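Q&A log
Question type: sequence-to-structure
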Amino acid sequence: MKDVFGEAWDRLFGPPVAHRGLWSPDGPPENSLGAFQAACVAGYGIELDVQISADGEAMVFHDAHLKRMTGQEGRLCDHSAADLRLMRLAGTDETIPSLAEALTEVGRRAMVHIEIKIPFGEVGPLERRVCEVLIDHNGPTSVIGFNPYSHAWFADHHPKILRGLDSYSYTGPDARHIAPDVRKRYAQLAHVQIARPHFLALSLDMLPNAKADAFRRGGMPILAWTVRAPAQWDAVKASCDNLIFEGFAA
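Response status: OK
Response body:
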């Protein structure tokens, strides 16, 4: 893998990755240029989220709805990139950046893990736009996400982009939109066969994990998310290669 992905492969194993950038309640907000700048200064990698705007731009934002972070009503996908860039994040001067703007801010200073935020089964426009943006970026990156069919699209169309499959236990309200039999298979990592990832990004609620250990022994690194305290990392680090963290100095 080192021969194919070079620096990006090396940076899977360190430094730790700041979840949505190095944000804090009294500092730059999540998924902002300020949070990405802070992560670079501190020497961390970066995880960020991308969604597609109404006019086809890859925008950096986590929630489907705008309310929590901007106070605005509606969904991100119903607004143009120009409109989204005017919305202030968490009452600060920071606004919603595009993926291109975020990568320009980071440059080669940090590994950037780009989480593709699309509903299960919907593949195409966002993946294509992310690829277009990555063509003009020479820093280390990966694409990550929960939708195995999105990963399969990258594997078929752009196999030289490093891919990491996100997974968790698929219990609780966040998984209600997924059929029970599918939730069970995904919790057992059966969707790795569909996604064909180069590494796994696993939630703390499914670590340690015997199936993941087997993939790791076969050469597939494991990243843990989201680690919010040193004790959480201590409990799983023997089974992992790196962590995605927030709320403390990893």
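Response note: The first strand starts at residue 17 and ends at 19.
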